[in-house]
Amino acid sequence: MSQLVENRESAAPATAGELLELVRTGRASTRSQLRALTGLSRTAVTARVTSLTSSGLLVLGEELASTGGRPPGALVFNKDAGVVLAVAIGRSRTQLAVLDLDGQERSADSRDHEVGVGPDELMADVVARFRVLLEGIEPPILGIGLSLPGTLDPTAGLSLSSPVMSGWDGVPLAPYFAELADAPLFVGNDADVLARSELLGGAGDLEDVLVVKASTGLGLGIIAGGRVLSGHLGAAGEIGHTIVDAARDLPCRCGAVGCLETIAGGWSLVARMAESGHPVGHVRELVALALQGDSVARGLLRDSGRELGEVLAVAINLLNPAAVVIGGDMGAAFDFYVAGVRESVYRRAAPLATRDLKFLPATHGVRAGVVGCAALALDHVLSPVAVDSRLAAQA
Question: How far is CA 205 from CA 28, 192, 321, 368, in A?
Fold first, then answer.
């Protein structure tokens, strides 16, 4: 039984927002089921359901099959009651999407941008592109989810430390969207939103999962007990900047020396490709070569996986996940990359921690970033507290 319906005798009566969550998550589809789960009276349930249907968040579906007497009316979550905007910003690419309240894309756009572009220039372009994506879309914008590499302040809505996004630290991001939508902005680390995307599918039925973003940099999203853990200052999962002996005194783009990224991050692999006489502009090109059979590219990806696995084994011993999901650009070469990861993990992690461990590709592939940003926004705007607040404002 969910926490929502536990200890109802001592808790405050269930709110309309809590009833919507029961319907949205599939735990209830009729008024009688809502009464049974919450202990509310028929009158109280009717009043809350009426409030939700008046706002458009619930609609009355076809009647369910009767088990005797008058068939109960079905309650259906209205995924078209609003939309959320998703913005996944990386070092050289920005992905945008407009999604319904079930996380299904209505329109999307992905474009490369110049490395080192500042927030004023890029965000103006993002807003302009969203104006095009929103043409013909009538439901209101309820929230905006945005991700950046590095450590972010979710309360202030800004980057605290992003080695790959020079000039973005300390810049409030919400004002850029003010003329586009009167909707709250929610920001998250790129690895965290990748983890959130897995809760919308694939590993979503597993409650303890480590989600690796292996791209230009290396990050780790942590799902524990079905929830994404960001840590005290939002810096959980900064696995790429773990100091490792194998990196010795190699300088990292973060300003430190000896970070894992210096020998396993995509940017370091690109540099090593150039040294071998096979220059590429981005790790995505390296991955493409590996998929085409290039032995140098395949070897670098496997080596990167081995180095990551050395550090990942410690996290596996500490957290005992059911699965490790491999996403990001290097995840596109899943077989080559994960071969190296497995090699180190099984050598260094405890046998019990790896006995049932699964290695899985990211469910949403190259769209994982925008799906995760949408999940970030949806988790907030559809929370019982947010729904109740919105209903109160509409009353």
Answer: 19, 18, 13, 17
CA 191 to chain centre: 7
Distance CA 97, CA 112 (A): 15
What CATH superfamily is the domain 83-195+369-394?
A: ATPase, nucleotide binding domain (3.30.420.40)
Instruction: Tell me how many degrees the CA angle 368-372-377 measures, rounded to the nearest 5.
Output: 155
d(CA 109, CA 310): 36
Q: What CA–CA distance (Å, rounded) separates 224 from 187?
A: 20
Query: CATH fold of 3-77, please?
Result: Arc Repressor Mutant, subunit A (1.10.10)
The full set of domain ranges for the chain reads: 3-77, 83-195+369-394, 205-362
Nearest to 52 by CA among 27, 35, 77, 80: 77
Instruction: Report residue 366: phi and psi, to 5°.
Output: -70, -15
Predicted TM-score (pTM) of this structure: 0.87
pLDDT in tens, 267-293: 999 999 999 888 998 999 999 999 999
* Residues in contact with 223: Cβ distance below 8 Å, sequence separation at least 6, in sequence order: 195, 198, 199, 203, 206, 207, 208, 209, 210, 211, 229, 321
Provide the CATH number for the domain formed by 205-362 in this structure. 3.30.420.40
